[in-house]
Amino acid sequence: MDSAGKEREAVQLMAEAEKRVKASHSFLRGLFGGNTRIEEACEMYTRAANMFKMAKNWNAAGNAFCQAAKLHMQLQSKHDSATSFVDAGNAYKKADPQERGREREVERSM
Asked: What local confidence, expressed as pLDDT, does residue 49 receive?
């Protein structure tokens, strides 16, 4: 698969992950299995981030890793959240090694 195909697939994964997150916020989902949807969304965001990395779209990869990290925090999974924030910081560094503002923003989010 070429890099454009990987980016397309990553964008689709991001959209599907957003749908899962929104579906988890409904009242009945919150009572019955909302966390399962959020866990699935975390996995989708991480897969999308890795697809963006393969396509060398570092900013999009960093954004996807940040989304996964925020959901991990919501699930009280501190280690997974920290790992995703580190991955996001590394992706942002590759996007623009001179720009440290994004990296600091990621550190503050932790």
From this structure: 97
